[in-house]
Amino acid sequence: MTHADLDRHVVEIHNPDGPLDSPVGAGKGDHTRIKSHAIIQLFGPDGELKHEQRVDNLITTAGDEYYAKRGGAGVSPAAPADVTKVDGMKLGTGATAAAKSGAGAALVTYESGSNNPFDSTFPDFVDLSGDTGWQIRYRTTWAAGDVTEAALTEAVITKDSTTDATSTAANTISRVVFSAINKTASDTLIVTWLHTFNAA
């Protein structure tokens, strides 16, 4: 797989038979939920995929608040104040399990210089069709020469990607922990986040 195949590959993950696409709350009496998945991909200097992980993860309590308030801010005429918008991702080397709040709801060990904005055409939106929901896709790329680390293990979506420092839980709407990835100076790392809204 090359970079050119990436979007087609991500769309294929929408297959409801796959482990990342099984609807959350698909049974009787269930309610609207947000499901979060991350796809972590490492490409070599030739553009070929070297490593990929697909990880179920969570939206933090701050993330729940974020989406609720963003929805409320879209109401007219008496719209509540909008929230500070997320603007990118950060990486880290911590291993603490992801959690809705507390230590696992933010980066544990920040990787210096890894604060990057979302890629230029992201986020984008996908209609999953058949009344199965809508999806927001976030993507950030760390190109060759941007971050060199032998054991990257965590990533977050944050409101303060312009700051080269760790992010607090209050600024983090989603966090994922994954098996260590060795990003050399010639590798490109791409993290794609899928937040799926599904009502059953």
What features would you describe in this structure?
The chain is mainly beta. The chain has one domain (3-11, 37-72, 81-198). Helices cover 10% and strands 38% of the residues. The protein has a nine-stranded antiparallel β-sheet. Strand 5 and strand 6 (134-142) form a beta hairpin. It is globular, with a radius of gyration of 17 Å. The chain starts with 5 loop residues before the first helix and ends with a strand.
Largest sheet: 9 strands, antiparallel
Work out the radius of gyration: 17 Å
Portion of residues within helices:
10-25%
Query: How big a fraction of the residues is strand?
Result: 35-45%
**How many domains make up the coordinates?**
1
Order of H and E elements: HEEHEEEEEEE
Number of strands: 9
How far apart are the first and last residues' alpha carbons, in Å? 34 Å
Name the poorly predicted regions.
Answer: 11-29
Q: Biggest sheet, strands in spatial order?
A: 4-3-7-8-2-1-9-6-5
Coarse morphology: globular
Helix count from the secondary structure assignment: 2
